[in-house]
Task: structure prediction
Amino acid sequence: MVEDSAPVHGELDEKLSEYIDLKLEPLVNQAVKAEEEVRYRQLKWIVVFVGVVGVGTFVTLTNYLIKDAVEDAVEEQIGFAGEQLEIGIAFTMATKIAISAEVPPEDVRFMMTFLEKAANNDKLKASYNFTPLLIQVAQSLVSAGLSRELDKLVVLFETEVLRIGELTEAFLHHYGQEIVGRPIAPDINDFALMTFEKLERAAPDSGYPELGLLYRTLYEANKSRGAVSATVVELLGQSTQLNDGDRILFFEHMLLRSNWGNWVLSSTPAVLQIERSIRQFFYKYSNDIAKIYGLSTSRTIREASNGLNADDAAALAQWIAFYGKPPET
Result:
C-alpha cells in the first residue's frame, strides 16, 4: 500500500532508515548467528548510505574500488561482496517502493535483473540477507500492484514462495485477489488460478490456512453467479475447523474488504470488483453462515452487504467466530 503523496528527500531518508530498522533487523536476526551481527550492522549502514548518495554514484564507487582485483581467490571474494552490496541496493529500492507514492521503473528493472541473476546462484540465495530481501521485494511489489513482476518472481523462486511463510502470505493475497477481482472467474488453465492453487496447498504448512480457504470460498461464490453453491456452503463448514485466531481472520479479512477504503488508498476496477463480490457473498450466504455457526439471526451478517468500516468488520468477525452476541449498533 502506498502513501497519498511522496515524501521529500530528507523525510524519505529518515523514513528509510526507520523502515530498515523495523523490517530488516528482525528478519535477519532470525537467520544469523551471534558472530554475524557485526556484518549485518555494516550492511544496514551501507543500505542507508546507498539511499542517500544514489544508486549510480554507489555503483561507480564500487566498480572503482574492485576493478584492480585480479587474483582468482580475491576476485571470488570481491565478487561475492559485490553481490552482497547489490542485495543492499535492491533492498533499498524495494523499501522506497513500499513507503513512496511513485514506483520508479528503473528501480523495478534493477531489482528484477538482480533477482533473475540470483535465481541461479545457490551461494547467494543461501546468504543470510537474501531471504529478507526477497520478502521485502515481494511485499513491495504486491503493495504496488505490479502483477507482471510478481508473475516473474513466483516462477523464479517458486520453491521459496511455497516454503517461506511471509512469501506465501504475500502471494496468497496477490493471486487470491487476482482471481476474485475479475468480472468473470478465471478457468483452470489460467496462470493466476494455477499459481493460487499451489499457494492454497502450501497455506496450512506456511501458517496461513485461513487465506487459502478465504479466497477459495470467494472464487467459488463468484463462479456460481446467482445460485447458492453447495461447494461454498461446504467451504464455510470447513472454516469452523480453523483454530480460534484463524477463524476470526477468515471473516475479518473478508469483511474488511466489503469497503475498499479499509484496505487500499485508491480504488481500481479490480478492487471494486472484490468489494462487490464480498457484499454479494454476505447477502447471499448470510443464512448459511448463521446456520453453520449456530447464530440466532442472519440479519447482522447481511448488513455486511452494504459495506462495513474496519471497527465493525472486526467486531462482526469476532461475533461470528465465537457465537457471541451481535455487536451493538
Remarks:
- Residues 90 and 111 are 5 Å apart (CA to CA).
